[in-house]
Design brief:
972 residues; alpha/beta; Leucine-rich repeat, LRR (right-handed beta-alpha superhelix); 15-stranded mixed β-sheet; 24 helices; 49 strands; globular; disordered N terminus; disordered C terminus; binds 2-acetamido-2-deoxy-beta-D-glucopyranose; ATP-binding; transmembrane helix; kinase; serine/threonine-protein kinase; transmembrane
Length: 972
């Protein structure tokens, strides 16, 4: 009887197969469920039915009953890729890109997906070697494994992918030689239909065999930069006439550049910089498409400039730093019709730098630093940047000496940003941004476009970037005003990075599948092709913070159908055995605690509002940070404090970061931590250390900051670690930078922020000794409710602590001003504030009070020996006076940080030093209008101007003349 019932049920189920499994092949259903088990954060539409094809699991499309597309891009998926992926044997497109928490070794079973045409796993965290079985996927045309942690060699079997047109293995840790075919074994030379060899930023080595290139090849982009290739550049490269971008820079190539390279008449970018190339500088005559050339830092024979410098009409950028070039500078170079950038620093040019009267209207940057140029007349009506620091002319021609042309402080151009001018002063609540054109507030998908070989260098050109905007919204089916571009710049690898915000065409946020669609289309490059001059690009996205949470999806009928289906499935499975389960992973991923899924955890507590509203910061998994710090190895430790330790690490994209890991005692509650990262992610200023991201997982709280290479101001003042000694000008600039950072926190951050722990150990210096204020760990928002002061437990560091704050426990911005004043005194004395039982503020005050006539004589013994004997201490008195005002006993008598900024700017200008204005140049007259403390400062300043200081007169320095000169010739 029981048997009969079973058979009956079986028949019912068979006849109702559609009900049991919907349209979807059970093998595919089981495979998808197995994937799900190993993943956190699968879309909510997943797993609600056993019919992915019929009921539209997000990211799945089917042909008949079989799954052919699986696209889950930028969905925050975490976990590993189950071997059961191999059961989806009809899959044609697999895109799991931009899921930073998805990784582990790539399963060999990927080799079962014989129908696959497109495989994109970029920007995940896959490890181990690239499985050789990929070479058996003969239909593959798009293969992107870039930005993972793959190691080992490139499998020779990839040479069998005769249909592949896109091969991107960049940003991994691949090593060894490029595989070349021999006998029956395949190699990359067989890939004659491939257009993209993107292998940059690995550790590939060995020589590049002549055999790799042939005239049948159709390559348009060769990106081999940032590897460890050696030997000569193969002459066969000249056979690949289709080539448009060739980057071999930052390798160990040696020997002469083959003359065949000049046969590459379609080439737009040629970058051979930073190798060990020898012989004559290559003759690029006849390369009639060439725009961007960089030959810097090789060891070519000493020579005068090659003729092609002034005959290649297509050049936009010529870069030959450290090129051993000598003789006169050809004037014609500056009138090439498209020229934007001429970078010829650290050569041996002599004579006059004459730019002629026919300067190209596109010319922006001219850098001849460290040559032997002896004459120069600033060209009239030229608005670009000219850099001549380190030339004879800067020593001998006194009117030039203190101008921007001779400054060692490079100017910056204002890069393009999408205009929000029509939106007036609209602002949005946190997490939202003003959308261009419509000016409403919405939640954009944010990320970075990295252009790896652009044909131009002008980051200010609005036409070019507006083209890019239009192309983006049109190709991605958005609408006008959906694209906001910001701050394009060239990074140290000569890649142009552009921050992008994509806004929903309607409403305030994207839904989950739109995020996936857009991320995938940008990643697979199948929808969006930028204007050609941008060259090959990569898209990296931040996790989308504003998913409307959540449609819920399951209507009653869906639920019922699922119930029936599940019931039938059980019966059927009983009858046909457990076969289908066999390939399911045994390990049911232990449902991780809510806390391990930061976004989910926050979201589930308070709805949409619970999701942290981040601007430009991403989150990291614990595993990711463990990996890049070698399991928090002691070797990677760079600092420690009450809160825990700081580690150094390098992200897969090459960025070096400092990871601050809270220890048990200093963990905050989830809400506090969320507030802190939201706050930090909103703060963007060049004098503040930027937050890259955070980790909130497995009971850990970590903040990931940009790594600042030159250590703290304290270390630099102590000349610890063999650091260079800071001269007085450098100290002034550091004072200015830190003051600007603080002024930003106090006045421009929204809401304003009081730092609470300003000290020399919290001011970091970058390569160029730009100051960056760090560690807002103790920061306190100044909310509107309690504007003016915040009552709170006293925190800070002894020696820097504002006495008024200490007494009253009322915190205001002026407490930071006090601490900053202490740092100013440190800059003067070089000593920490508490030194051998003496307190710097008291000591300086005493010294000043003791001397009636010339109070500054009393300071002589206290001035840091490093600067004491230097000839001029520009504006020294003003600086001391300003410092003493900052450490006044009562906050009301201390200046505001923006007044401090203006004062120091004036001190620097009194040296003819051109400071790049922050936004509006601060005007002294505004400053004079300030009442109260401002008046006191004004008095001091006035004295300095009227009576040249001892130092100034001894250097024969004419203040008013220098000022007039610098005003007149200041480039726009
Ligand atoms: C590059 O290769 C050379 C030898 O060919 C080796 O000595 C060096 O360590 C390699 N560099 C890296 C970063 O692996
Ligand atoms: C450039 O190409 C032409 C024609 O294909 C060939 O004859 C010539 O030898 C090549 N030049 C070099 C330097 O390889
Ligand atoms: C550079 O190449 C062009 C065209 O091939 C040739 O006419 C010229 O003489 C060459 N210049 C030098 C200095 O070799």
């Amino acid at each position: 009887m029981a048997k009969f019932t079973g058979i009956l049920l079986f028949l019912v189920c068979l006849s109702g197969f559609h009900v049991c499994f919907g349209n979807t092949d059970p093998q595919d259903v089981a495979a998808l469920r197995s994937l799900m088990e190993q993943w956190q954060n699968t879309p909510s539409a997943w797993g609600q039915t056993d019919d992915p094809c019929g009921t539209a699991w997000q990211g799945i499309t089917c042909t008949g009953s079989r799954v052919v597309t699986l696209i889950l891009s930028n969905q925050n998926i975490q976990g590993t890729l189950s071997g059961d992926i191999g059961q989806l044997s009809q899959l044609q497109t697999l895109d799991l890109s931009l899921n930073g928490g998805l990784g582990g070794p790539l399963t060999e079973n990927i080799g079962n997906l014989k129908q696959l045409t497109s495989l994109s796993l970029q920007n995940c965290s896959f490890t181990g070697s690239i499985p050789g079985v990929l070479g058996s996927l003969s239909k593959l045309s798009f293969l992107a494994l870039n930005s993972n942690q793959f190691s080992g060699t490139i499998p020779a079997s990839l040479g069998n992918l005769s249909n592949v047109y896109w091969l991107d293995l960049s940003y991994n840790q691949l090593s060894g030689q490029l595989p070349i075919s021999s006998g029956t074994s395949p190699g990359l030379d067989l890939l004659v239909h491939t257009q993209h060899f993107h292998f940059n930023q690995n550790n590939l080595s060995g020589t590049i065999p002549e055999k790799l290139f042939s005239s049948q090849m159709q390559l348009i982009h060769i990106l081999f930069d940032g590897n460890n290739f050696t030997g000569e550049i193969p002459a066969s490269i000249g056979l690949v006439n289709s080539l448009e971008a060739l980057r071999l820079d930052r390798n160990g190539f040696s020997g002469p550049v083959p003359s065949s390279i000049a046969n590459l008449t379609n080439l737009h970018e040629l970058n051979l910089a930073n190798n060990k190339l020898t012989g004559l500088m290559p003759n690029l005559t006849g390369m009639s498409s060439l725009n961007y050339v960089d030959l810097s830092n090789n060891t070519f024979n000493r020579s005068e400039t090659p003729l092609w410098f002034s005959t290649l009409d297509t050049l936009t950028s010529l870069v030959v730093s450290y090129g051993r070039l000598s003789g006169p500078v050809p004037q014609k170079l500056f009138s090439l019709p498209q020229i934007q950038q001429v970078i010829l620093d650290n050569n041996e040019f002599t004579g006059t730098l004459g730019m002629g009267s026919n300067i190209s209207s596109h010319l922006q940057t001219v850098n001849f630093e460290n040559n032997n140029i002896s004459l120069f007349t600033p060209p009239p009506n030229f608005h670009g940047i000219i850099m001549l620091h380190g030339n004879e002319v800067c020593e001998t021609v006194s009117v030039l000496k203190n101008t921007i042309y001779c400054s060692d402080h490079p100017q910056a151009l204002t890069p393009y940003s999408t205009s929000l001018a029509s939106c007036g002063s609209s602002s949005c609540s946190s997490g939202l941004s003003v959308r261009p054109l419509s000016c409403n507030c919405a939640c954009p998908l944010t990320g970075m476009l990295t252009f790896r070989a652009p044909y131009f260098s002008d980051v200010t050109n609005s036409t070019v970037f507006q083209d890019l905007e239009n192309q983006l919204w049109q190709n991605l089916s958005l609408s006008p005003g959906s694209v906001y571009l910001e701050n394009p710049f060239f990074d140290e690898n000569s890649y142009m990075q552009v921050q992008v915000k994509l806004f929903p065409p309607t409403g305030t946020s994207f839904n989950q599948s739109e995020v996936s669609r857009i991320s995938s289309q940008l990643g697979q490059q199948n929808e969006f092709k930028p204007p050609k001059i941008f060259g090959p690009y990569l898209f990296t996205a931040n996790p989308y913070p504003c998913l409307d949470n959540q449609s819920g999806g399951s209507s009653l009928s869906k639920g019922a159908a699922a119930g029936i289906a599940a019931g039938c499935a059980i019966v059927l499975l009983t009858l046909i055995g457990m076969g289908i389960y066999a390939f399911r992973q045994k390990r049911r991923a232990e449902r991780a605690t809510e806390i391990s899924k930061p976004f989910a955890a926050w979201a589930s507590t308070k709805g949409v509002d619970g999701v942290p509203q981040l601007k430009g910061a991403r989150w990291f998994t614990f595993d990711e940070l463990t990996k890049i710090t070698n399991n928090f190895a002691e070797m990677n430790e760079i600092g420690a404090g009450g809160y825990g330790k700081v580690y150094k690490g390098q992200l897969t994209n090459g960025q070096v970061v400092a990871i601050k890991r809270a220890q048990a005692g200093s963990l905050q509650g989830a809400a506090e931590f969320k507030t802190e990262i939201e706050l930090l992610s909103r703060v963007h200023h060049k004098n503040l250390v930027g937050l890259v991201g955070f980790c909130f997982e497995q009971g850990e709280q970590m903040l990931v900051y940009e790594f600042i290479s030159n250590g703290t101001l304290r270390e630099n003042l102590s000349a610890e670690n063999g650091k260079q000694q800071l001269d007085w000008m450098k100290r002034l600039k550091i004072a200015l930078g830190s003051a600007r950072g603080l002024a930003y926190l106090h006045e421009l951050a929204d809401p304003p922020i009081i730092h609470r722990d300003i000290k020399s150990a919290n001011i970091l210096l970058d390569k160029l000794l730009n100051a960056k204020v760090a560690d807002f760990g103790l920061s306190k928002l100044v909310s509107d409710a309690e504007k003016g002061h915040v009552s709170t437990q006293v925190k800070g560091t002894l020696g820097y602590l504002d006495p008024e704050y200490y007494m009253t426990q009322l915190l205001t911005e002026k407490s930071d001003v006090y601490s900053y004043g202490v740092v100013m005194l440190e800059l003067i004395t070089g000593k920490p504030p508490l030194h051998k039982g003496k307190y710097i503020v008291r000591e300086v005050r005493l010294a000043l009070n003791m001397m009636g006539e010339d109070p500054y004589c009393g300071l002589e013994d206290m001035v840091d020996t490093v600067i004491r004997n230097s000839e001029t201490l520009i504006a020294f008195k003003s600086f001391v006076q300003l410092a003493m005002l900052c450490v006044e006993e009562t906050g009301a008598r201390r200046p505001k940080m923006n007044q401090v900024v203006k004062e120091i700017e004036l001190m620097l200008q009194s040296d003819g030093f051109q400071i790049e204005p922050e936004s509006e140049p601060s005007s002294a007259t505004d400053f004079y209008r300030e009442a109260g403390v401002g008046t006191a400062l004004h008095g001091h300043l006035y004295n300095d101007q009227q009576l040249p200081t001892k130092e100034a007169s001894s250097s024969g320095f004419d203040y008013s003349g220098a000022y007039a000169l610098s005003t007149k010739i200041e480039p726009k």
